[in-house]
TrEMBL record:
SUPFAM superfamilies: NAD(P)-binding Rossmann-fold domains
Molecular function per GO: L-threonine 3-dehydrogenase activity
Gene3D superfamilies xrefs: NAD(P)-binding Rossmann-like Domain
Name of the protein this chain belongs to: Nucleoside-diphosphate-sugar epimerase
Family of this protein: Belongs to the NAD(P)-dependent epimerase/dehydratase family.
Length: 315
């Protein structure tokens, strides 16, 4: 079957790289990039791009009607740190954007839908180490609350209406191509930029704050592997735990020092993102992803650090 793929929220940190990879696989014209913001390339001479506000259901319906997608990726969201600055908008965007897409996917018989969840679904009473797929979940950010509710809706649409919706709980994603979008894990990207520009970085998370992270190449590969897996192998219809590598700011700084020996790391005091980080797991158990669709990360801390620095130096 000829795939036609719509990516909503295509200009963000994940969308930028996902669209490029999907276009390599399926061809430029079969992947429609959609965002509320103008991209930084010339849209007249580019592969398909559409301005779309995911909260405007009629506008999203227009896209389903025009392209009749076989797959839809919904990436538009407010992340953990920006979500706390505007909780009502975060809830509205993260929840109603999802419900609009789930309803339209049913109406237009879209074969597969992808929606990202996050480690933010876990909370202060979730186990901290090797946090399992099924455990106590008491998120205390609006982002985490909306992601947990969204996961329940995904499973509901799958079980009640047979919609093939798939999802992954992303850890902090580390990438050099596009800027991160206002998350608690963003320090792990800023640190690389500042290490190269200034030789120093002031971290908004404290020493000892260990969080689950992943290199973007792994995240994109894993996402497409999940979407390509046979439907009967997908046993989790809420969202899959997904692990890469866990580290603290000082461990990351020590790795950067192997390339930039004089690099120094200091810490900001009382940043509100510290509270968010404290409520999240230190590491994730992704047994279900490994068992169901063969997930295995390729980038450890050393490999991702080398690749980040090499690419940022060139860009
Ligand atoms: C954030 O920090 O909000 C995101 C996430 C872990 O979902 N990067």
């Amino acid at each position: 079957m000829q795939e036609k793929i719509v990516v909503l929220g295509s200009n963000g940190q994940i969308g930028t790289e996902l669209v490029t990879t999907l276009r390599k696989i399926y061809g430029d014209d079969n992947v429609v990039a959609c965002d509320i913001r103008r991209p930084d390339y010339d849209i007249k001479n580019s592969a398909p791009f559409e301005f779309v506000n995911v909260l405007d259901k009629e506008m999203v319906k227009g896209i389903f009607h025009k392209y009749r997608p076989t797959q839809v990726y919904l990436l538009a969201a407010l992340l953990s740190a920006t979500g706390e600055q505007n909780p009502k908008l975060a809830w509205d965007l993260n929840m109603n954007g999802l419900l609009n897409v789930l309803d339209l996917a049913l109406e237009y018989k879209t074969a597969k839908v992808y929606w990202p969840s996050s480690i933010a679904v876990f909370g202060p009473n979730s186990p901290k180490d090797h946090t399992s797929q099924y455990c106590v979940m008491d998120p205390n950010t609006v982002y985490g609350i909306s992601k947990l509710a969204g996961e329940r809706w995904c499973e509901y649409y799958n079980q009640k209406y047979g919609l093939d919706v798939r999802s992954i709980r992303y850890p902090g994603l580390i990438s050099w191509k596009a800027a991160p979008g206002g998350g608690t894990t963003d320090y792990a990207i800023h640190i690389f930029h500042d290490a190269l520009k200034k030789g120093s970085y002031q971290s908004f998370l404290n020493a000892g704050t260990e969080l689950p992270m992943m290199y973007m190449d792994d995240a994109i590969r894993g996402t497409i592997e999940l979407m390509d897996a046979p439907a009967d192998q997908i046993s989790v219809r809420s969202s899959y735990n997904f692990a890469g590598v866990s580290f603290t700011p000082e461990v990351l700084a020590a790795e950067i020092r192997k390339h930039i020996p004089d690099f120094t790391l200091t810490y900001t005091e009382n940043d509100p993102r510290q509270q968010i980080a404290n409520s999240w797991p230190r590491s994730i158990d992704d047994t279900y992803a490994a068992k169901d669709w063969g997930w295995k990360p390729e980038f450890d801390l050393s490999k991702l650090t080398t690749d980040m620095l090499k690419n940022l130096k060139k860009s």
